[in-house]
Amino acid sequence: MINENIDHKREIFLSIPSEDKHIYLLDMVISYCGKEMGFDEETIDQINLAVIEAGTNAIKHGNKNDPEKSAEFRFYLSEDKLIVFIKDCGNGFDPSSVGDPLSPENFMKPCGRGIFLMKAMMDEVEYSMGKDCGTEVKMVKYKNGEEIGDLSR
What we know:
alpha+beta
């Protein structure tokens, strides 16, 4: 599990069944968090894209669309950053095993761009195996807005 020693002023927890129809709830929570922290609309859209992509991965790939399993989301709002944790109950995976979506052999593949987008939209993206099972993703967006994700990670 990723280090959770986080200084924050507000925490929001959301657990949803692993069905795509519940993804819309993330949009509502992200919009609230972004506005509460004073992010501009473009930054809120970036966070939204990254969190929805990570949530879709947790539901589809981690939990295999099993509505008996939940995808868990924790949002930590602090003075200078938004930290989001996404956890599934799957078998886990190695993010380095996902092909580079910019490689010519991957251009036409219908999937494989999610991690790339998450890294492009957020300032930090980190993976770990969950405490009991699954994969946990930690994503950070800094409030200063100066930084944008590093595509080389």
